Inverse folding.
């Protein structure tokens, strides 16, 4: 168990494996804010933000297909785990790929593919040691070389990944592979928040020589089919490193044009799960006897220019509309 130093006083990163509900709970968390579910079986009934089973939960049943209805996708949809652009992309990517560190249901950090994540005295270098026995979908063992390769691809200046700015202070030339499962990653300056950065959606680990046309990760499901803007299918990974998981045989994710189409799909059982519903649509779903779950974790970014008034912070100070600084 290791401590990530920071100015607020850090908490241990728990090395414990996910419990038997984690894969499904993580999946529903990735779907976003406002999830309505219908007829998805006893296993998913326990999915929530708590690590404790719901009072109505029963023993999960194995097998079956989960059909998911999302909105917001289009021709630019991707399975690239280093640059998921939309919530639809994130949901798909989470079926195939996994990060070194993940978030707990309580928003803490927890080791996933990493067995150890330890900084030196001033957090200018981190030692990453991987779990043994983790394999990619093609049967290749997960190694330190794959992690180094993933970091190199994320920070590649010619085609940077979505998390490039978050780990820009990594000294790529100084990364050293200690052994098959261990590497040391130096930073140009202290970087104490690495455990909080890695769970972000841009850091799924890929194998050396990753081919987006044949995407393989370490996740609970394997790639079966994908048509951008339409649908994708993922099948159970029988060699998944977390014993006994996943419970489902298949996950089918379909893009819908709007909430009305989503609700229609839900009401006809064409979809078991739909996401990102408005409050009004959640009320509609409840009114028809369907189960509605409001799932936290969504956000809306507020973007503004900081190189021009009123938000620039030049030598003259930061300005506001009222003329203050």
């Amino acid at each position: 168990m290791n401590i990530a130093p920071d100015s607020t006083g850090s908490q241990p990163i728990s090395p414990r494996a996910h419990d038997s509900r984690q894969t499904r709970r993580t999946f529903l968390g990735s779907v976003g804010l406002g999830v309505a579910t219908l007829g998805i079986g006893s296993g998913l009934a326990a999915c929530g933000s708590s690590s404790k089973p719901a009072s109505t939960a029963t023993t999960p049943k194995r097998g079956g297909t989960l059909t998911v209805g999302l909105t917001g996708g289009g021709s630019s949809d991707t399975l690239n785990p280093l640059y998921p652009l939309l919530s639809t992309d994130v949901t798909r990517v989470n079926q195939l790929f996994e990060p070194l560190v993940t978030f707990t249901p309580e928003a803490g950090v927890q080791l996933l593919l990493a067995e150890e994540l330890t900084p030196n005295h001033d957090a200018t270098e981190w030692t990453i040691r991987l779990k043994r026995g983790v394999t990619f979908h093609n049967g290749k063992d997960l190694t330190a070389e794959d992690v180094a390769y993933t970091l190199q691809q994320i920070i590649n200046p010619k085609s940077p990944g979505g998390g490039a700015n978050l780990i820009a202070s990594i000294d790529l030339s100084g990364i050293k592979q200690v052994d098959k499962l261990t590497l040391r990653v130096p930073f140009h300056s202290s970087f104490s928040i690495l455990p909080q950065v890695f769970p972000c959606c841009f850091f799924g680990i890929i194998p050396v020589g990753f081919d987006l046309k044949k995407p393989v990760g370490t996740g609970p499901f394997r790639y079966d089919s994908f048509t951008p803007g339409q649908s994708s299918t993922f099948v159970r990974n029988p060699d998944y490193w977390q014993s006994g998981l996943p419970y489902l045989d298949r996950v089918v994710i379909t893009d819908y044009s709007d909430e009305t189409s989503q609700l229609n799909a839900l009401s006809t059982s064409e979809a078991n799960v739909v996401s990102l519903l408005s409050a009004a649509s959640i009320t509609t779903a409840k009114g028809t006897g369907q189960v509605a779950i409001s799932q936290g974790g969504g956000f809306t970014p507020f973007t503004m220019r900081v190189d021009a008034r009123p938000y620039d912070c030049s030598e003259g100070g930061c300005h506001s509309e009222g003329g203050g600084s």
User: Anything to note?
Assistant: The chain has one domain: 2-293. The first strand starts at residue 2 and ends at 3.
